[in-house]
């Protein structure tokens, strides 16, 4: 009984402290060694648990949950390879700055590295891919130990949340027997039961430092604000205020959350990817200063443009101290909270600026939007870009769209235009893997409705196991499955010109009939061959609850051709404008 | 062109050297950064490539291949979370001593930790879970560099093979453009092209050291030889020779490969799991000496018996220097190749010993087999143990049976008896995960036919993606899917007595109709409700090529009850014999 009492008090203390630190969502994978933690989590009245049998999917599910909620979610698994399955989601969470509390049960010290079953070395299991690792002591009773347990719990949550947010790993060696006491409840649950209150500071600049940054910007008309992956409430308003003061257009990646919202989008440029496709146009639009926020935007033409000019002011602002400058073009690396930076800068800049530069940008952006819309309206084929445009038309206000990597995120970049429906775009743009996307979207769907996932067939396949969560937890998700039967992105890359081995290594057609996958998880399934069918299927998906899969068969080659043709026409229209403009 | 030439010569040298070191099987996952390695591997006439889209499955597929062939297989993937997906299979390979060559493409140094896309920190990515890690230089031409590349290739294979065999990781930073030259062929391919020849030594004892180990065994009649997980050709013959000389019975785990073969099985005890279930009988069979080989046997009653007796000679022999003594009962830790140990010991022992002890063991084992057979022959329900017995009846000579973890491996332990069909039993008994089992079996199936996989529903679900390999590579596999709709093993564990949360946390019924899964991968599917159906389905599976899924619905509760009842009767029969024997 002493063992059980120690086990229970110790683990209940930990759980109580993470819960009062704000962790209420826990994704649990079944296992034996983790039994007491799992049972106590089930027992805590404030904890929502999600059983997920495949640990890889479980961790991505938690990632999606945490990303959507903008606060930490936890995962729990047993010892052994179970824990290794968390690795992809952890690597993604680290780079995309998603707070995760990773709890792993472990064999106690005497069963490590001695050939005991289901024992792998779990110390620092995820290496540098977690922000913090703590090995817990074997459960015991004692005032100091319990204070340590509570402090560690609070600390884990704090480390996960502190910018840059990310995953932390706590490893629990547990001895048998593994059954905790449940009656009477081991939780005290009084208000104010939280032992250690944590307060999170942010990186901020002094007025002087801000002044020094404004100085070189003075007199520069041709500036660009580039917003990459960033998801902070209030950032949109702050950066738009700064842009007004500077008179710089805001090039907004779809994951900057600037392409949709209840704010004015006048200065937002959403077509730079298509605009910069033409090198001559890109050269004409050479900026003299760039202020960049967030992770690198998805657009390759933008990247190439930024890399072109070594002789301009290039300010990178990062509240997470991440040194995010893959181009090595930064002239100023500013470690400062992004929202604070914008507000401080805007506060010191008095006038609102109007400029030819800004006007030209807006015109080019408008022309590009019109051209793309005109071409796509006439498109009869099931074009992957048009899928984005047609879907957006049907989205209700406050929808969430989770976007797969590889082609879908690029199509969103090109074809998703500013709107005021307050749509939230989400994606796993840390390591940009095609893995775990289904589970991440399902995690996000817990508190986001309606939620659409746009995903390619290979990425859908990669995390098909994730769909079990939809069935087990009665989640509502509408999956637009773009099936080009293989790896569509490679058709846009240099290897497409090397026909030898191309289809085997990169095309990789799987010829899967995904209707079986939808049926396996009790999902509704529709395959659409034309745009009328597509609209009906999306409407029905919006009406029905549960898992809806709308499969859109597309053709990799036609898709590349159509997009190249469209970009040529965009370039032509912009050139005409620029020539007229200059004449 | 200089870049392409450097890239090509450098990578072709590496590939040529691993191939001439014996690596011919490479599992490739599609990706961009890995393009030149993938294309060159496809181009090498001696390399067999297997495309596998899900990297987690890919690595387990390679593990199964390597395990079956008893030589290294390689995997290749692109940068980012792709590589993290290899982690579970790598952790398993490390503990179960399977040689794997893990090749990962990486971003070059200037794109690391600067927010570049698809870049995670891949240096020492798998931590202590690989035997060796090497970071390669960025490809360049130069005599010393090329010698280094070839030496690293040979070294990687050697490290992977050297006891204890295991995974090694080689990371290749590659710069764009990523297309190698294919014409003319970059491979020289002359016989003898191998640059660095490696010679693997084994741990061996001197005659004196052997003599010192024989000394304390002299005069001990009640000895046991315990063979756990070990898969070395010739070991069976060697250990049986030793057992004859010592007069000790050989307690053989199913993964010792001692339960089937063309050798005599007189001294092999295959029922110790059932025998030791009764504590009183176990006490009566207390040994005075134990010699143990291989990884820990699956049997918990055996483990408990071995842990009971601190006052006996306990010799652990391990050619991989693994300190495999989770019980902490060893009196002698012998770091010596197991086969060499047996042969040296047997060589110094002159007579063949007969003893009452050995006679008693054989009788008890015989009685147990008879009892189990009698009970199971009468069983009408779809009992999980009986599945093993009925399947074995139908297995052709030289079949391979891959066994899932959790319940199937325990059922094999209890219900699989010595036979001379030369059946090879395989399982992932390093970390004992339920993950990756389908892929491991499919990897094994490449060169093993017929191959049966016995697997539970949760484990089958966990690696369902692995089935794509069956479809894409036209593999032949017969899957006996034991569907008890959840985690059957937990019904045998203490938490089964705690009904609160049990079904949610441990039972975890998924209610999946697996026919959809079989159909998704173009597999044949049969659900069997009685033994006649079962036999027909197995016969048909043996005739048909491709993927066959035979689903056996079972009942977790009935299964526990039936097995407990059977063990009670076994104990009764043995007690009767022992009482009569002693009378």
TrEMBL record, chains A, B:
List the catalytic activities from the record. Answer: isochorismate + 2-oxoglutarate + H(+) = 5-enolpyruvoyl-6-hydroxy-2-succinyl-cyclohex-3-ene-1-carboxylate + CO2
Question: What would be an example GO MF term here?
Answer: 2-succinyl-5-enolpyruvyl-6-hydroxy-3-cyclohexene-1-carboxylic-acid synthase activity
Gene3D superfamilies reported for this sequence: 3.40.50.970, TPP-binding domain
- The record lists the organism as Heyndrickxia acidicola
Q: Which segment of the chain is annotated as a signal peptide?
A: none
What is the protein name given in its UniProt record? Answer: 2-succinyl-5-enolpyruvyl-6-hydroxy-3-cyclohexene-1-carboxylate synthase
In which family does this protein belong, per the annotation?
Answer: Belongs to the TPP enzyme family. MenD subfamily.
**Role:** Catalyzes the thiamine diphosphate-dependent decarboxylation of 2-oxoglutarate and the subsequent addition of the resulting succinic semialdehyde-thiamine pyrophosphate anion to isochorismate to yield 2-succinyl-5-enolpyruvyl-6-hydroxy-3-cyclohexene-1-carboxylate (SEPHCHC).
């Amino acid at each position: 009984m002493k063992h059980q009492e120690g086990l229970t008090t110790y683990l209940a203390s930990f759980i109580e402290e993470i819960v009062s630190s704000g962790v209420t969502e826990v994704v649990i994978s079944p296992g034996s060694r983790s039994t007491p933690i799992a049972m106590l989590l089930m027992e805590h009245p404030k904890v929502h648990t999600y059983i997920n049998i495949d640990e890889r999917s479980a961790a991505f599910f938690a990632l999606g949950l945490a990303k959507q909620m903008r606060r930490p979610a936890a995962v729990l698994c047993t010892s052994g390879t179970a824990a290794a399955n968390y690795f992809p989601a952890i690597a993604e969470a680290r780079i995309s700055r998603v707070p995760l509390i990773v709890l792993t049960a472990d064999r106690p010290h005497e069963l490590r590295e001695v050939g005991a079953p289901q024992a792998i070395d779990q110390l620092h299991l995820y290496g540098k891919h977690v922000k913090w690792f703590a090995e817990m002591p074997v459960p015991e009773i004692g005032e100091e130990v319990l204070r340590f347990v509570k402090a560690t719990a609070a600390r884990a949550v704090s480390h996960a949340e502190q910018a840059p947010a990310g995953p932390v790993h706590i490893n629990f060696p547990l001895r048998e027997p593994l059954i905790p006491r449940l009656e009477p409840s081991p939780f005290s649950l009084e208000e104010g039961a939280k032992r250690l209150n944590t307060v999170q500071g942010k990186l901020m600049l002094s007025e002087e430092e801000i002044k020094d940054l404004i100085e070189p910007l003075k007199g520069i008309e041709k500036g660009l604000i580039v917003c990459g992956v960033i998801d902070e409430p209030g950032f949109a308003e702050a950066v738009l205020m700064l842009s007004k003061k500077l008179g710089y257009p805001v090039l907004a990646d779809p994951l900057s959350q600037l392409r949709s919202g209840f704010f004015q989008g006048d200065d937002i440029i959403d077509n730079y990817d298509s605009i910069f496709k033409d090198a001559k146009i890109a050269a004409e639009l050479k900026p003299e200063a760039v202020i960049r926020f967030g992770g690198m935007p998805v657009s390759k033409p933008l990247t190439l443009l930024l890399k072109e000019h070594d002789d301009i002011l290039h300010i990178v602002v990062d509240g997470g101290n991440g040194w995010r400058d893959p181009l090595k073009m930064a002239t100023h690396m500013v470690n400062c909270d992004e929202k604070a930076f914008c507000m401080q800068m805007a506060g010191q800049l008095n006038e609102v600026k109007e400029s030819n530069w800004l006007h030209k940008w807006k015109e080019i952006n408008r022309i590009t939007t019109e051209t793309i819309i005109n071409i796509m309206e006439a498109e009869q084929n099931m074009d992957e870009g048009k899928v984005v445009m047609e879907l957006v038309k049907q989205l209700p206000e406050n929808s969430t769209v989770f976007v797969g990597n590889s082609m879908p995120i690029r199509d969103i970049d090109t074809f998703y235009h500013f709107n005021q429906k307050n749509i939230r775009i989400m994606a796993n743009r840390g390591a940009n893997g095609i893995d775990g996307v289904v589970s991440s979207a399902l995690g996000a769907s817990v508190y986001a409705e309606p939620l659409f996932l746009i995903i390619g067939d290979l990425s859908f396949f990669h995390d098909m196991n994730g769909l079990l969560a939809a069935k087990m937890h009665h989640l509502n998700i509408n999956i637009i499955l773009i099936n080009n039967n293989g790896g569509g992105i490679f058709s846009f890359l240099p290897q497409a010109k090397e026909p030898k081995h191309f289809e085997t290594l990169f095309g990789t057609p799987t010829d899967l009939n995904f209707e079986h996958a939808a049926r396996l998880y009790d999902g509704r399934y529709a395959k659409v061959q034309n745009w009328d069918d597509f609209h009906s299927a999306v409407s029905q998906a919006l009406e029905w609850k549960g898992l809806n899969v709308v499969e859109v068969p597309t053709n990799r080659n036609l898709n590349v051709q159509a997009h190249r043709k469209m970009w040529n026409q965009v370039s032509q229209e912009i050139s005409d404008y620029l020539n007229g403009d200059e004449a």
